[in-house]
Amino acid sequence: MSEVSSARRDGIGVGVAVGVSGVAFGSAAVTAGLDVAQACVLSLFAFTGASQFALAGVVGGGGNLVAGTLGALLLGARNTFYGLRLADLLAVRGPRRWFAAHGVIDETTAVATAQRTPEGSRAGFYATFAGVYVFWNLTTLAGAAFTRQMADPSLLGLDAVGPATFLALLWPRFREPGTRQIAVLGAGIALLSTPFLPPGVPVLLSAVAVLAGFLRSGTRGPGRDLAEKESV
């Protein structure tokens, strides 16, 4: 099997596996107070799972849409850095850049950068983009429509589906000690400030942890990192 065919196969497989979690988002969005159409529009045009769950979580917790949107934008900002890496691999020009930019997410980046040739990277990127986008939007509609029919979604525990899936999406990023420290600091800031601030604001305030992480990594310097690696 050629690398292009293998990349497409992997991309579609990832798309199906990840896209199924759209059911959880659709359910979480409706439980948070959004209607089916609003949930579907978010998946169609935002198309970044963690950010969508964050927005639904803030709105569901009593926060306003502005706070939820700002939190979602903070999480989605990482896609900008993915785009810098993918720009050379995809080598798209003109209006196609806007289309490709919409598909820059964790999964498409992972599959594209895992390939050995530019052709394989492009095939993997677009196959993953198509797979995730189609299944994510279909399952968002299914989850939202099903939850909408429930008189009280919390009776089936559907109100817990969103936070649980959000944690599952973030869990792979906790493998590195630095990321875990930032997560713990951010969670601590949010928990301590929750009794004193309006809903949604603690989530935004927790972004201070990311700034602290950047400052810490900047003060380490390359010499210290090299010394630590050599001592292992």
TrEMBL record:
Q: Which GO terms describe its cellular component?
A: plasma membrane
Instruction: Give the UniProt subcellular location, in the record's own words.
Output: Cell membrane
Main location per the UniProt record: membrane
- What are the transmembrane regions? 12-33, 53-75, 125-147, 183-215
Q: Which UniProt keywords apply?
A: Cell membrane, Membrane, Transmembrane, Transmembrane helix, Transport
Q: How does it sit in the membrane?
A: Multi-pass membrane protein
Biological process terms from the Gene Ontology for this record are:
L-valine transmembrane transport
Is Nucleus one of the keywords UniProt gives this record? no
| PANTHER family, per database record | INNER MEMBRANE PROTEIN YGAZ (PTHR34979:SF1)
Family stated for the protein in its record: Belongs to the AzlC family.
What is this protein identified as? Branched-chain amino acid ABC transporter permease
Query: What organism is this sequence from?
Result: Bailinhaonella thermotolerans
